[in-house]
Amino acid sequence: MSSKILTFTLNGETIRVVVEPTDMLADVLRDKLNLIGVKKGCGQGECGACTVIMNGDAVTSCIIPALKAEGAVVETIEGIGGPGKYHPLQESFMDLGAIQCGFCTPGMIMSAKALLDKNEQPTREEIREAISGNICRCTGYVKIEKAVSTAAEKIREGK
Amino acid sequence: MKRFKHYDACTLDEAVSLLKEFDGKANIIAGGTDIVGLFKDNVFAESPEALINIKTIPGLDYVQEEEDMLKIGPLALLEDLAHNKLLKSNYTALAEAARRTASPHIREMGTIGGNICQFSRCWYYRLPNNRFNCIRKGGKDCFAEEGENRYHSIFGNVKDCLAVHPSDTAPALIALEAKVKTTKRVIEMADFYQTEDAKKFSILDSDEILIEIQIPRPSESTKSKFEKFAIRKSIDFPIVNCASKVEFEGDKVKKANICLNAVFVTPYVPKKAEEYLEGKALELDTVETAAQLALQDAKPLSKNEYKIEIAKSLIKKTLLACK
Ligand SMILES: Cc1cc2nc3c(=O)[nH]c(=O)nc-3n(C[C@@H](O)[C@@H](O)[C@H](O)COP(=O)(O)OP(=O)(O)OC[C@H]3O[C@@H](n4cnc5c(N)ncnc54)[C@H](O)[C@@H]3O)c2cc1C
Ligand code: FES
Ligand code: FES
User: Where does the 2Fe-2S ferredoxin-type domain start and stop, copy by copy (chain A) (predicted)?
Assistant: First the structure.
């Protein structure tokens, strides 16, 4: 058999999971590790719904063979906060109505988080650029942009 | 998806010997943003048996200037090239081409080597489960000839295939007169794509790996520029793109290099336009004439005549930006 054991850090924990060469990271996260906040839209890298942060960068997990995550540090929406203690991005997306159907939201937030992790004071252009690989068919992006800049403010104030 | 084996290569020698072992039935995977989509959609009739990961080979993602040459490792990420200061100032067309490729997510994964080695994005070729057995796959027809050809070649076919090459960085590298070093040879980037064997796009043999891109340092009096026309600013492939490099002597053009892509089966260098510009000042009327000459031999298909005007406009814009 060509299956292998994949070892990587997922949301701060070391994970070992058996994967096939044909398994994509998005499938392993969703189907084997039950992290269904990772959404699957196009499956071809075009929509950004499956965005996770891998070694600090926002990437589309639907076109990453899981075996490429060997030794990597991966973060998903589940790892950044949740009920009880939301991440400032999660809070501002909810507070400012930057969510409608919600399908694009985990991917949007992970793209935005990768940006804010590197740059706490992004310009409007930098925010637009960071989420330019994420397609939202509901909101029209204006509120999303606002939510990201509000979260950036909160993060700066919190320091 | 059909089953395949996955190997993490630790050295180039190991990767080459694995390629030899599979004798044409294995592919290199770098960032995977092109090849994974092909596998997922079962695009090939005979699916390759193995993917050989070269991302695990250390030290292949450098960007460094040595003497009179810029050397770029095949695994340099597009996002890093897009933001590289040296590139932005001295090799502008390449930084801009990298910057305009795909989306930030894809640029964080996609490599320069993979960008120039990527396969066709023709929708007949790419349709899942090999539904159109086109010339590129050993079939007899090009379905774009009478079908939906709005994104196809405006300079005719090669071996009856009308699919264009989709790379954004290839025209920039050709305009910058880059060379490509492989595990077997060093060749001009302008000769990197071939038209003899319809089943492949570049000259690379099945056991050959691209190991470096070399760009001669442009003189002080040289500027370069890249422009891309696509439906959206992000994510989309070029409908037409163009890179120009102009070296000046006083206010006259000493040498001009122009390369269009997504207009022909391989990147397209309009030689007549380049020659015409030599010795001329870059004025509106000279760039207009250059653009006319560049598109003089165009033979648009039923649905893509519009690409001619776009190509002309990109040639003019890039040339004028070099002033
Ligand atoms: C949504 C989306 C949008 C895109 N938009 C654009 C766009 O606008 N412009 C554009 O130019 N591209 C675009 N692309 C294509 C994108 O795949 C490439 O830009 C990317 O650079 C490919 O690099 P990679 O490392 O991921 O290649 P891979 O997928 O790893 O490899 C691609 C091909 O090159 C071969 N290869 C890779 N490295 C080497 C090497 N060193 N030696 C020999 N062969 C090698 C592989 O075997 C494979 O056949 C897009 C892709 C997606 C998914
Ligand atoms: S599902 Fe991965 S980019 Fe669309
Ligand atoms: S909220 Fe529905 S797709 Fe973005």
Answer: 4-80
Q: How many whole angstroms from A141 Cα to the centroid of ligand 3?
A: 9
Q: Which atom of ligand 1 is nearest to the CA of B28?
A: 47
| CATH fourth-level superfamily of A81-157 | [2Fe-2S]-binding domain (1.10.150.120)
Chain A residues whose CB is inside 8 A of the B79 CB are: 57
Q: pTM value?
A: 0.97
Residue of chain B minimizing CA distance to A71: B56
Phi, psi dihedrals of residue B13, rounded to the nearest 5°: -60, -40
Amino acid letter at A36?
I
The structural domains of chain A, with segments of one domain joined by +, span 4-79, 81-157
Q: Is A61 on the interface with B (CB under 8 A)?
A: no
Instruction: List pLDDT tens digits, range A30-84.
Output: 999 999 999 999 999 999 999 999 999 999 999 999 999 999 999 999 999 999 9
The share of chain A scoring above pLDDT 70, in percent, equals 99
**Partner B contacted by A110 (CB < 8 A):** no
| Chain B residues near residue A21 by CB distance under 8 angstroms | 3-6, 51
**Long-range contacts of residues B157-162, Cβ cutoff 8 Å, at least 24 apart:** B157/B265, B158/B195, B158/B265, B158/B266, B159/B135, B159/B195, B159/B198, B160/B135, B161/B134, B161/B135, B161/B136, B161/B198, B161/B265, B162/B122, B162/B265, B162/B301
Put simply, whether A6 touches B (Cβ < 8 Å) is: no
Say what the ipTM of the complex is. Answer: 0.95
Measured between CA atoms, how close is A152 to chain B, in angstroms? Answer: 20
Q: What is the pLDDT of residues B23-61, one digit of tens each?
A: 999 999 999 999 999 999 999 877 789 999 999 999 999
d(CA B103, CA B109): 10
At the top level of CATH, which class does the domain A4-79 belong to?
Answer: alpha beta
Consecutive 10-residue averages of pLDDT for chain B (323 residues): 92 98 96 96 87 97 96 98 98 98 98 97 94 92 96 96 97 98 98 93 97 98 98 96 98 98 98 98 98 98 98 98 97
Asked if B32 is an interface residue toward chain A (Cβ–Cβ < 8 A), one would say yes
Query: For chain A, give me the number of helices (H) and strands (E)?
Result: 6, 5
CA distance A53 to A76: 7
